[in-house]
Amino acid sequence: MRDVPPLNPKITLKDIQEDAMRHLYKLRDPDTQDACEAYRITDDTQIAEPVPVITINNEIISTEGNLTTISGASKSGKSAFTSILLAGAISTDGVIDGLEYVNVQPNTDKKAVIHIDTEQAKHKHKNNLRSIIRRANINRCPDYFSSYNIRQLEVAQYTEITTQICERAMRKCGGIHLMVIDGIADFISDVNDAEQSTYIVKYFEELAIKYQTPIIVIVHTNPGTDKERGHLGSQCQRKCESLLMVKTEGNISFIEPKLLRMAGKANIPNIQFMYDKDRGYHIGCGVRAANADDKIVQRITRLRDLCGDVLSGQKSLRYQKLIEEIMIQTGKSMNAVKSLFKELKAHKLIVKGEDNYWRAENK
Fold first, then answer.
1. Where are the chain's structural domains?
2. Are 254 and 270 contacting, i.e. CB atoms less than 8 angstroms apart?
3. What CATH fold (topology level) applies to the domain 52-288?
């Protein structure tokens, strides 16, 4: 049995009793009681309803003053998904080339939108920035959109520079509409350290509350599992308002709701997206079946049959004419048919020739 270290000989039982009494008298002090009252919630407490900034299928994902976690394996499409959210956040009218069902509250007041990247090389970061701006139908980076690459700094400097960025944004824009941290693990030296993990999640939680903004943090999952990395991942789970996981199968990424405080999982579709070389960014390609592989096979079979009906033989059509033909064939709306087109393209059931005509892929 290990030896128990001796008590400090200078501290007596009387000292302990007197210290306890001092705390007791302090609690009885009216000023102390008033301070405690500020944290009490009753049925008469006036609390404003949370403002939803991000919704999926009209279900609340992110509100002002709270954290949202986006997790997934390396190269699964986490940054691509948050780029879509950033495009929505910098848009003043909400008209972007985004994902079906995903809605970001338009930034009508041109409040600050902050993006901090700790992982990518600067040239890659710049390309992503340009794709966000194009997606939002904006010609140049707006003054209220601030995207920072801080990976060259020491880890110890990360929170200091982040605080400065937020303060500068408040002075300049009078508020923060949305903040994205890609990725939070780089703000600490060990994701398995409970104290560091608790500290950094609390830090971002306090920023969200102070500036009344939703903050999205990106964290990796452990290789081969759906568990977010270390104590950091566990702390993000406990403290976030919602946790969405981005997964990938082949060239297609999809969103899977994991933890939701303000919505039901059954109401969040598994939205798919994939990289489009022509546009230079990811685009939506339909909704993934909820569970069984059989549903996916059946869906692809139906899409292949649609190709046969619209593009039989050697028939080829330009994009707009193809959309019109699919509308006639299916009786669906323009938006629904555009979603079908993205699925056909994602599953490589159609290909575009050098003449810019689309044809059925017969492989």
1. 52-288, 293-360
2. yes
3. Rossmann fold (3.40.50)
Q: Which of 272, 267, 242 is nearest to 100 (CA)?
A: 272
Residue with tokens 């969405």: 244
Asked if residues 236 and 243 have their Cβ atoms less than 8 Å apart, the reply is yes
Q: Which residues pair with 288 in a beta bridge?
A: 270
Backbone phi, then psi, for 75, in 5-degree steps? 65, 25
Query: Which DSSP letter does residue 355 get?
Result: T
- Alpha helices in the chain, H assignment, sequence order: 13-28, 30-37, 78-90, 122-135, 158-173, 194-211, 230-239, 293-310, 319-330, 334-346
Give the closest residue to 176 by CA, choosing from 145, 217, 202: 145
Amino acid, single-letter form, for residue 244:
L
Pairing between β-strand 215-220 and β-strand 67-72 as defined by DSSP bridges: parallel
Contact 61, 244 (CB under 8 A): yes
What is the per-residue pLDDT for 23?
A: 60
Top-confidence residue, 333 or 30: 333
Identity at 43, one-letter amino acid code: D
Q: In whole angstroms, give the CA distance from residue 271 to residue 180.
A: 20
Fold for 293-360, please state it.
Arc Repressor Mutant, subunit A (1.10.10)
User: CB-based contacts of 73: which residues, under 8 Å, 6+ apart?
Assistant: 220, 221, 223, 247, 248
d(CA 242, CA 170): 25
Angstrom distances, CA of residue 343 to CA of 101, 190, 201, 296, 319 = 15, 41, 38, 12, 14
pLDDT at 317 over 80: yes
Contact between 148 and 115 (Cβ < 8 Å): yes
Q: What is the pLDDT of residues 224-251, one digit of tens each?
A: 888 999 999 999 999 999 999 999 988 8
Structure tokens at 80: 């691509």
**142-156 confidence digits (pLDDT tens):** 999 999 999 999 999
